[in-house]
Amino acid sequence: MAEPVQSAHTQEQEYPPLHGGKLLMLTVAVATASFMEILDMTIVNVSVPAISGSLGVSTSEGTWAISSYMLAAAVMQPLTGWISRRFGEVRTFVTSILLFMCFSAICGLATTLPMLVGARLIQGLVSGPMMSVAQAILLRNYPVERRGMAIALWAMVIIIAPIFGPILGGWITDNLSWPWLFYINLPVGALAATSSWLILRHRESKKTKLPIDGIGLALLVIGVGSLQFMLDNGNEQDWFSSPLIVIAGVVSLISVCFLIPWELTDKHPVIDLHMFARRNFRVGVLVTGVAYFGLSGINVVFPLWLQTTVGYTATWAGLAVAPTGILALVAAPIVGRNMNRLNLRLTASFAFCVFGFAIFWAATLNDTANFSQFATPRFMQGLGIAFFFLPLNQIMLSGVPPSELASASGLSNFVRTMSGSIATAMTVFVWNRRTDYHHAVLTEHIRNSAGAWTNYQTELGNRGISGTGAFDYVEHVITTQAMTLGVNDVFHLLGWMFLLLIPFVWFAKPPFKARGSEAAH
Questions:
Q1: What is the pTM of this model?
Q2: Is 203 helix (H, G, I), strand (E, B) or coil?
Q3: Pick from 520, 494, 464, 261: which is nearest to 381 by CA?
Q4: Backbone φ/ψ region at 231: left (φ over 0), alpha (ψ -120 to 50), beta
Q5: Which CATH superfamily hosts domain 20-201+270-436+482-520?
Q6: Tens digits of per-residue pLDDT, 147-156?
Q7: Rounded Cα–Cα distance for residues 303 and 316 (Å)
Q8: How far is 336 from 339, CA to CA, in rounded Å?
């Protein structure tokens, strides 16, 4: 058993760092678990139409399988610091993986939407601590001088997983069946849990018995749960035209209004809002949260549009979405190696310019575009991911003591996950509303006094399409065009959102020291 290292000025490194084969095995195990958790956020995106059809619900309701998972994970992420200190990081990590596997199996066995959403909800809850604890475990067990490499490797997993998520999700849906989206977690999770336990079972982090903030936790669950209900049911209930949605919104707002002052004054808060007193953490978290809203919105709406409007299968929709990660995979190691030489604020600004350019490019496409035309903007968008994630992650955690790393990561992941969940509901809502608007505008031109409509009817008649068949054909054309114009409006909105983020990056204040260098001093 490794002997703990005693230090006069820091306790974050309780054991000597790992080297050689053990370090490699730990990296693989942690990366595998992180890959599995991130994969589950994106693998379902391209399969929503198939899941919805199988369970007999609309595609809007089918997106509950995405938002329920993300919001449940968001609830647990702020608790990561307390859980890991109370039970130990290793035990928390391994237990989270095992429970994740269990509820993945239940998701695959679901026969109704409520059963699937309930299983996804609990799956999200048990996965909440996984990512933040994974990051802390890597930092604790890597040599100080190689901690930058550890975070770069971890970031690479976050970049790679979204590449494989849509492709794997599409292939499984088309060639097997959607339950296998969840069954594949069982062997992957077993490998990660077993490897992690064998290597780390005698290297548990220091445990501290702290009281839990019960009132803060209750306010958080009620607030986020009400928000979850509102987001899941808003599109079907016509949002605030429904008294039920209004009540959920009011309950969520009141809970948050009470939560903030309570957490600021409690000795052991569930969400340590004092983290936001650090300027760089505040800027990094808020900018990352808004940016993640935009990226998540695109990743949900784009494959839905390809399948419901353009006629792509889940596999081809996944292939069209996946190129985002290719350039990110190439650029991330370069950015990681040169992090200390780069102007991080300028680098993040460049990333948002790339995002804006790529999204505006995608907004020029219509349902007649070919595969390469759909994939190319996504390919270019990937360049921005490496220049966005790594610099903002370093800005965000610069100055955070290693002892508070798990809490800081949990809070940042909470904001990021909440943003992604809200984006899932809001972008689908905006797309539906803009589709209705464009459908109404286009329909206005279908009248006998319109010369263009008369000529179009004649052309349809020459093709053997007349009477009711002509109106059905035209309705299909109008709906297709309205959905295309609607998704283009969503792209324009998100493109401007990225460009407007650029000035906010510059509120961050140098120096942005790496955590490894800080820990060394």
A1: 0.75
A2: coil
A3: 494
A4: alpha
A5: MFS general substrate transporter like domains (1.20.1250.20)
A6: 666 766 776 7
A7: 9
A8: 5
